[in-house]
Write a structure and sequence with these properties.
- The chain is of the alpha/beta class and 283 residues long.
- It folds into two domains: 110 residues, Rossmann fold; 153 residues, Rossmann fold, CATH 3.40.50.
- Helix content is 43%, strand content 16%.
- It has a four-stranded parallel beta sheet, sandwiched between helices.
- Strand 1, helix 1 and strand 2 form a beta-alpha-beta unit.
- Helix 2 runs parallel beside helix 3 and helix 5 runs antiparallel to helix 6.
- The protein is elongated and about 70 Å long.
């Protein structure tokens, strides 16, 4: 029997309307669309929508490119105007946060706030995230020298194990993360082995996947020379030495071969939580 032809991807327009930054809507939409196979949204993002004139412009664009409308508009009059406009255009319109806020309200017995952008208030958490981001940038790929004492976590791994993006993602969660590369022939910073406050986590990836990532990296740089950077035996030796180092030091290890940056960061956060609670171990 012959297998059926592959299903073509379905493209559709989705209009994301927010009276704040739109980050929440964007994340929700990506999470929902990821649950469907071969579905690719064409996103139209409208942040900081706070006037009827802005809504009029958006409705014209919805009419030109019909699709799904998802919003987080708080103001009642603006919501009503948007929903009526969508009914005229016969376009589905959804308030993304309504089901959760309604459930929370019933449980807490509390009324909803009508303030816009409350989740982005300039509170201590916000400034902690900015400080963590500055720290991650200043201590990326071994930068910052021996100054690792104030890190919450230090990621150690060979080149192209997603150390940098994981640190940036952790910074957005308020975690001060540094990363130190394992470079063949180069010693690690001495102070790395004497850290008491920071959690040190080793990142590993399968040699085959690592070679693939590195080759793609070289192609993006228009570099096609063969070297130990992508040599099969050399890469396998790198990963073996990294694993032995992590085992010798007793550092928890995360295999990032089939993990996204978000999943790796979530594992690091779990390790931090277990450490605070008196647990530990590798993920």
């Amino acid at each position: 029997m012959t297998s059926p032809p592959p299903r073509l991807a379905t493209y559709f327009h989705v209009h994301l309307i927010s009276d704040s930054t739109g980050e929440t809507l964007n994340a929700l939409t990506k999470a929902v669309c990821a649950r469907f196979d071969n579905v690719l949204p064409i996103e139209h993002i409208y942040p900081l929508i706070r006037s009827p004139r802005q809504l009029e412009r958006i409705l014209r664009e919805v009419e030109a490119a019909p699709g799904v409308i998802v919003h987080t508009i708080v103001d009642r009059e603006m919501r009503t105007e948007l929903e009526e406009g969508c009914r005229r255009l016969e376009s589905p319109c959804m308030a993304a946060l309504d089901p959760m806020t309604a459930a929370f309200g019933r449980y807490l017995g509390a009324s909803l706030t009508t303030r816009i952008g409350v989740q982005h208030a300039l509170d201590n958490d916000y400034f902690n995230r900015i400080e963590a981001l500055n720290y991650a940038i200043g201590h990326d790929d071994g930068q910052g020298g021996q100054d690792l004492q104030s890190a919450d976590v230090v990621l150690v791994g060979v080149s192209r194990t997603s150390k940098t993006p994981t640190c940036i993602y952790l910074a957005h969660r308020g975690v001060r993360a540094a990363n130190v590369p394992l470079v063949p022939g180069s010693p690690l910073p001495e102070k790395l082995f004497g850290l008491e406050r920071a959690l040190i986590v080793g990142l590993l990836v399968s040699p085959d996947r690592l070679i693939q990532i590195r080759r793609n990296r070289l192609l993006s740089l228009n570099e096609d020379r063969e070297s130990s950077y992508v040599d099969v035996d050399a890469v396998r030796e790198e990963t073996v030495r990294a694993r032995r180092l992590f085992e010798k030091q007793g550092w928890p290890v995360i295999d990032v071969t089939r993990r996204s940056v978000e999943e790796t960061a979530a594992s690091v956060i779990n390790l931090l939580a277990n450490r605070v609670a008196g647990g530990g171990g590798a993920s």
